[in-house]
Input
Amino acid sequence: MPETKAAKIRTRVEALRAMIDNECTAPVCRESGSCRHEGEKEAARHMLGRLLDKLKGAATDEHEERAELWAEIYKRGYDSQGNTYRKGAKYRAGQPMKERISQIRTHIKIARRTAKSPLVPDGPGLASQALQTYRFDPIGEAPEQIKFRVRIGAGYGSVRISIDNIPEDWGWIAEEVADYQGEIVTRWKRTPALNDLVTELKAIGEAYNADHGSNLSTDSFMKAFYVFVKADDPETLALRSDGHRTRHS
Ligand SMILES: [Zn+2]
Output
């Protein structure tokens, strides 16, 4: 029987697990006997841990029917992967900032690559779910034109993640408000999608921040370095390009 298109669809959870479990077949790695893609596997492990954590959280919030769906996805991988994630986070403790930065970049790259797989297979009753998937994988679901920059801040005390080239209608809501003089001005508010993306990037950065990746809220994270996520609103961008012109004219 020929393989149907539906049978080829992998969920994002499965795609990540495959990336984690499969032996590397790249010729260069086979010849040298050491795989150069461990960083990608590590990022995939971490991403899967986070994804499954969120699905687990969702399972408790959703109505029973949908909760069952999420629970099923959750059951598929959490037990074995949860531990790996924690081990991986410990393994990175004490690494130079340069390496942390490069791992955060890898994480973003892997998130975008695996986003080509659906989070869950298409099926009846799942139409509305598609609208919500960005909540579970905000990096993967972000518009393709967005560029991410990950840098070390001054003095090696911070990681700076910038979200550039944000489509205006995707990322921002213009609110007309009266300023203190009664003039109507535009205030730019982040959309929920952009908010989730910022939160996700912050959480990724914080996860690379310490040796307890499984708990993002412990104090020990904050002490090693700070994580800043920057998304400039349309007004800031316009001001900056004005300043740029002035300086160069
Ligand atoms: Zn390899």
In short: The pocket of zinc ion is lined by residues 24, 26, 29, 35-37 (CB under 6 Å). The first helix runs from residue 5 to 8.
